[in-house]
Amino acid sequence: MLIHFYNAGVEDAEVFNPFLPILPLESPGIAVNIELVSAVLRSLAPKKLKNRNWSQALGELAFSKREFPRAMKFYMETLISNSHYFLKTFEKDDRLIHRMIKCSSELGNHVTGTILCQLIDGCDYSGAFRSLEERNNNNDAMDGLYPYLWDVTVLEYAVTMHAKKGDYSRKKKALDTINNLEINTNNNDEILLEAASYRRNIFLRKMAAFFL
User: Fold this and answer.
1) Low-confidence winner among 54-58, 95-99, 188-192 (lowest mean pLDDT)
2) Structural domain tally of the chain?
3) What does pTM read for this prediction?
4) Residue 128 in domain
5) In a domain, 129, yes or no
6) What is the tens place of the pLDDT at every residue in 127-180?
7) DSSP string covering 72-101, please?
8) Would you tell me how many other CB atoms lie within 10 Å of the CB of residue 116?
9) What pLDDT is recorded for position 132?
10) Neighbours of 123 (CB within 10 A)
11) Is residue 207 part of a domain?
12) Domain with 188 in it
């Protein structure tokens, strides 16, 4: 109900309620004290035991308020809560990953966004290519993160992009990653999935260390 009030009180808000389907955004006809609702939601959340649903709800709340670092903190807690710190496969949630990509873009972490695009079912290629092309306010390690890419199509795009721009050192980093035998497209699916899982989990642990 509190999440419903928040959605009703904030224009264009769509805070995802992990306990129920997304509630409608129409106003219930009462004035809503947004800060009070936010404070109550935070106070109700468990303080010690991390809970996926609460973490995701608080992440959505922070996202709706454009508090992107805080949103990323809770989104990372959401992923960690059911994966034993990425030691096992976590439950796929494309909506949550899209939120994380948006946060990364707003924070200027564009290559991070590219890597996260690989987590979308089927890979969000248009989003990945757009993030690779972005050079304004870039705050992450850029091509230093290429070793965490595992989708060869994304890497080939990076090679072509850097070649056109004359960024030959970055082109070489992308090529070096493509040349890793474990992501060779001639490998069987089991090897490719294992390589993707290894890169994904290492990268997400690094993200967790940064945001938590």
Assistant:
1) 54-58
2) 1
3) 0.81
4) yes
5) yes
6) 999 999 987 778 888 889 999 999 999 999 999 999 999 999 999 999 999 999
7) HHHHHHHHHHTTTTTTSPPPP-HHHHHHHH
8) 27
9) 93
10) 15
11) yes
12) 92-211
DSSP notation for the chain:
-HHHHHHHHSTT-----TTSSPPP----SS---HHHHHHHHHHHS-SSS--HHHHHHHHHHHHHTT-HHHHHHHHHHHHHHTTTTTTSPPPP-HHHHHHHHHHHHHTT-HHHHHHHHTTSTT--HHHHHHHHH--TT--S-GGGGGGG---HHHHHHHHHHHHHHT-HHHHHHHHHHHT-GGG-TTS-HHHHHHHHHHHHHHHHHHHHHHH-
Tell me if 68 is assigned to some domain: no
Per the listing, tokens 């990653």 go with: 177
Rounded Cα–Cα distance for residues 203 and 211 (Å): 12
Residue at 19: amino acid letter: F
Identity (one letter) of the amino acid at 49?
L
Per-residue tokens: 44: 């109700």
CB atoms closer than 10 angstroms to residue 92: 10
